[in-house]
Design a protein that fits this description.
Blueprint: E1 5-8, H1 16-26, E2 33-37, H2 39-43, E3 51-53, H3 60-63, E4 68-72, H4 89-104, E5 110-113, H5 118-122, H6 132-139, E6 146-150, E7 155-158, H7 168-171, H8 174-192, E8 198-202, H9 217-231, E9 235-240, H10 248-251, E10 256-259, H11 262-272, E11 278-282, E12 288-291, H12 308-323
Parallel strand pairs: 1-2, 1-5, 2-4, 3-4, 5-12, 7-10, 8-9, 8-10
Antiparallel strand pairs: 6-7, 6-11, 11-12
Length: 328
């Protein structure tokens, strides 16, 4: 019997719950999961939505046939779609912590995190992080992590993640690129079963600096990193001009693109597959995936949110667990 994936709700006023319901309706056996949710919110979904409260993760697989399995998580304030409140933020954080503990204890295959409202989480005083990736790095005591954006058409990893664009050149160091390249290489081998990943490394400046005419970071910072990665046995190439790195023919020449900043990595993958892209954290001792979209407060409760990214995030979590031999 396979272990389930634990799905954290993200902000309960967002689209997370309704997307979990949609995912339950679409997924087949072998992609089992359970949700952390307040039983009052589950009851408010009405008779048209079947749910099944469980007490332990191992109950999820059997419960999937009867309804969407969930473990009760008390939210102090009654949830209303599209109306986030800070009073529920502590429970949002707690759901992540409980799920991580379950993963560390091998009770579940993986953690799939729902989208959160970071501004509200920071008001608790317990979330001084740019995003869930950095929070997970902290609670897992991971030295380095990388954020992989994955779709069938393209995989990308930003070296600098939630960093203001104006500070990227100062934060971009040779050592940081090397660490990101190694985490990416090891992650693709361990979690995606790619034996010898080909890593295309994007330049920072237009035309990858054009021999220093448009900035010296490419030659001064990125090239030495590529050389050291290659010397260590990693198939790394570049720096490659970002404006010609993502068309169909170019994509066939690599398994993942290592990009220098957030939007350089996220714009192409979201353009190619906006509704199906998955966010994966590489470098953790546990498996973590997430749908690559926000809370959707403006559409919550309207029945129009699309579940493709969440469905793929759950499926990918199971695939990664199987590759790590954590599925059973």
């Amino acid at each position: 019997m396979s272990k389930p994936v634990a799905l954290t709700p993200g902000d309960p006023a967002g689209v997370g719950i309704e997307l979990a319901v949609a995912a339950w309706k679409e997924l087949h056996r072998g992609s089992d999961f359970f949700l952390f949710a307040d039983r009052r919110q589950m009851a408010a979904l009405g008779d048209s939505v079947q749910s099944c409260e469980i007490n332990q993760p191992e109950m999820a697989t059997a419960a999937m046939k009867d309804g969407i399995p969930f473990i009760h998580l008390d939210f102090p304030t009654l949830v209303h779609a599209g109306e986030p409140v800070v009073e529920n933020s502590e429970a949002v954080i707690r759901a992540i912590e409980i799920a991580v503990d379950m993963a560390k204890g091998r009770k579940i295959a993986a953690v799939c995190t729902g989208p959160v409202n970071k501004r509200l989480l920071r008001q608790t005083g317990r979330f001084p992080y740019p995003g869930q990736t950095e929070f997970l790095q902290h609670i897992c005591s991971a030295r380095d992590v990388a954020m992989l954006l994955a779709s069938p058409e393209l995989r990308t990893v930003p070296v600098t993640i939630h960093t203001a664009l104006r500070t990227v050149p100062a934060e971009l160091t040779t050592d940081r690129i090397i660490r990101a390249g190694r985490i990416t290489h090891d992650g693709l081998r361990r979690d995606l079963a790619i034996d010898a990943p080909r890593i295309a490394i994007a330049g920072l400046n237009p035309h990858a600096g054009e021999a220093g005419l448009m900035g010296d970071e490419d030659e001064r910072v990125i090239v030495p990193a590529i050389r050291k990665l290659v010397d260590s046995g990693i198939q790394a190439s570049g720096p490659r001009p970002a404006d010609s790195l993502f068309h169909e023919s170019a994509r066939s020449s690599y398994d993942v693109a290592l990009c220098m900043y957030h939007d350089q990595a996220l714009i192409p993958v979201k353009t190619l597959d906006f509704f199906g892209t998955v966010n994966v954290t590489l470098g953790l001792p546990i498996i973590r995936t997430s749908p690559d979209h926000g809370t959707g407060f403006d559409i919550a409760g309207k029945g129009i949110a699309r579940p493709e990214s969440l469905i793929r995030a759950i499926e990918m979590a199971h695939e990664m667990a199987a590759n790590r031999n954590l599925a059973v």
